[in-house]
Amino acid sequence: MQFSIRKPLNVFGIVCSGIVLSSCSGLAGLDTLNPAPPAVIATQAPANTAPVSGATIGTGHVKVGLILPLSSPNGAVAATALRNSAELALSEFQSQDVTLLVKDDLGTGEGAAAATKQAISEGAELIIGPLFASSVQSASRVAQSAGKSMIAFSSDEAVATRGVYLLSFTPQADVERIVGYATEKGRKSFAVLAPDSAYGNIAVQNFEQKVRQAGGRIVATERYNGSAVTSAAQRIKTGISGADALFIPEDAANLPSVAQALSSAGIDLSKVTVLGTSVWNQPTVFKIPQLQGAVFPAPETTGFNSFAQRYKAKFGQNPVRIATLAFDATALVAALTKTQGANRFQENVLTNASGFSGQDGVFRFRSDGTNDRALAVFQINLGRANSVSAAPKGFAK
Q1: Total domain count for the chain?
Q2: Strand 384-389 with 376-381, pairing
Q3: Domain shared by 56 and 39, yes or no
Q4: Per-residue pLDDT tens for 332-378?
Q5: Does 307 lie in the same domain as 235?
Q6: Separation CA 251–CA 37 (nearest Å)
Q7: pLDDT digit string, tens, across residues 302-328
Q8: pLDDT, tens digit, for every residue of 7-29?
Q9: Under 8 Å between Cβ of 32 and 2
Q10: Quick one: three-class SS letters along 128-195?
């Protein structure tokens, strides 16, 4: 069974094996959920300012906490976009059943714990957010002691656990997709050049595991810290001669120096397939000469582009890239509230194996709190990134 939003919104759906049925996995009736089209709105509406703690969105009887770093110097911009996206989701669904209790966690673990406690004391049945890993960790202790689940936005899989579900874009999903694509193209021997960082550690660990599961082998691995990338590039020069793919889980800001170090070491990247992660999905990366022909996983662009247009029409500014996370979390809350009654936020509903379809494609929560995402694969060519493998439309059971 599949329910999906009336086009052109394509806001949210629940997917079961990609087949339209009357019921699936006990989630009967979801195919009846079709939010009304949004009302006509001005194209230059003023942007919302960050609400104070205690603000609410909606007036429904089902209360859900929305915990965000609204006053944090490092998170206020993203938090406001996430808050706005939640409002957009409720307005497009025209949901009369949900109230979001918006709380400012100040960008700290202590603030997140206090905000979560306050939301639950006001009747929150579920917590959406926080954004930062340390805040998720602190908030989850409060939520779990109260028997409440969370849908959080951190990409740090270390804070995921049963009942604490990450809706973010994680290294695990990136690696699984790019290794699958590479092995489908006949790549069996892999080299790794990765930063000695928290993200690099997670990406490399997952990469090694997925390569082994795919029947491939790692022929060379070099790690670096900061400017040491030059010597790491020299060291990997010999090992890469036995590889047919090179994995570089580096962020967009540091990729130019990594590419230059490889070039200076005399490594011709056109001789191997260069693999990245979704953090490469930046225009600055597409212009790096040495990375022309490289491939990386990322969500399909259609859903986000449509979302961004609607967001700008309502709030008068462009959303940050992760804003879709709050939209999808809120859409999920609205959908389950309307269709699942008292069971709406139970574990077996949230971890439905067939998954959910949001702005960035199909996703599902695992029982350990991590997620699976259906990602596309893009290839960098002539300063652009073009899809070379479409995102799957659903998951195998």
Answers
A1: 2
A2: antiparallel
A3: yes
A4: 999 999 999 999 999 999 999 999 999 999 999 999 999 999 999 99
A5: no
A6: 38
A7: 999 999 999 999 999 999 999 999 999
A8: 222 334 443 322 222 223 333 22
A9: no
A10: ECCCCHHHHHHHHHHHHHCCCEEEECCCCHHHCECCEEECCCCHHHHHHHHHHHHHHCCCCEEEEEEE
3-state secondary structure of 384: strand
Domain that holds residue 283: 172-298+377-389
- d(C-alpha 117, C-alpha 124), whole Å: 9
Q: 13, 137, 12: which is closest to 67 by C-alpha?
A: 137
Overall average pLDDT of the 76-94 stretch: 95
DSSP-derived secondary structure for 347-375: HHHHT-TT-EEETTEEEEE-TTS-EEE--
Rg (alpha carbons) of the chain, rounded to whole number = 22
CB-CB contact of 315 with 49 (8 Å): no
Residue bearing tokens 């193209």: 185
Q: pTM of the prediction?
A: 0.83
Q: CB–CB of 372/168 below 8 Å?
A: no
